[in-house]
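User: Second chain of the day. Same drill as before.
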Amino acid sequence: MSAVFVITGPSGVGKGTLIRELRELVPELELSTSATTRGRRAGEVDDVDYHFLERDEFDRRVAAGDFLEHATYSGNRYGTLRTEVEERNARGAPVVLEIELQGARQVRGTMPEAVQIFIAPPDPADLRRRLEGRGTDDPETIEARLAVAEEELAARDEFGHTVVNDEIDRAAAELAAIVRGELG
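Assistant: Same format as last time:
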């Protein structure tokens, strides 16, 4: 099986931005598109940003065993369809999964060879600033995400690698060095 990289960390830590930079530095790395029940944000495209599923369709696919991992986060369901990883692995492409803590733990159990990387903020207060600065969530959602972030930050020692996202270029270079090292 080709390399699978699990990247997790609290909401607002910059996982998506770092992964975009990582894919510029390691172009053979392919991003798995997650499925979700949450509504689309402005500019998001179905089957590109996410596979947007109705809750009943998501639940049906969970029951069918279609997910490598799935979790509920801030009231919405998220997951990685097995086909997202299997199709890329069949072509020999390394795959990166951008997932939440619950999902990362599931992947660790079902795919222990996956490389697990935790993205941490330089300071927990940065998360509030980043979430508020995104302008995509209402204050109640931000507070819920910050409450979950406390548990997520406490779990960072579970991961084989931790990258502190204090400066995007430096953090992306560190992430790329981890990936390249694992790819050989």
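The chain has a mean pLDDT of 91.

User: Great, on to the next one.
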